[in-house]
What does this fold into?
Amino acid sequence: MQKIIHRENDRGHIDFGWLKSAHSFSFGQYFDPEKVNFGALRVLNDDQVEGGQGFGRHGHDNMEIVSIPLEGILSHQDSMGNVRNIETGEVQIMSAGKGVEHAEFNGDQKAVVKFLQIWIIPNEMNITPGYDQKSYLHLDRHNRFATIVSPDVSDPNTVHIHQDAYFNLADLDEGRTISYTVHSERNGIYLFILDGKVQVANETLTRRDGIGIYDSDNIEIAADYKSKLLLIEVPMF
It folds into this structure.
């Protein structure tokens, strides 16, 4: 087993007033040569946008962009014609492919929106751009992982990603232990602690810490306190 630890306080932090963001990997003005990516996982931004503010229209290509609101409403518009609100309890994916433009704004004029934006390097370049959005509130995440993003186009519970990648959420009770087994031996696991305190791979992780684990087909996670987890499985190339 190989592991990489990313502590909350070691992330890149920016504060533009209307936007506060913490970067687990190099992004924008923040660059750390040791934190460029974890396999196909390229970006994990922990964003907070003030009411009525947001990112104006801008372009992307050849990236799978996943947004997960944690609090509030995220408004989305893009050049494919999508005009949508993504609420807490939903997951959105935009496959930028050969090129797409989009804008993202806080969908509330007063309350803050907090969300994760995660970029995954796709397994095929220059595809036709695509969009998908689903609620995961009906999925059982209590002391177990629920998959919300996967490459399986036939799975009605997940949004489809153009990569052998899986996003999973879990809510653990204090004292509970769960395990996760990778789908492929070429994949690694990036565990991001949304809240709480857990033990994994002989490490103690707390809120907003991350750990990348590879060369291992299974991990066990034990919750010291009530905890919320995001687990991302990606190819390590």
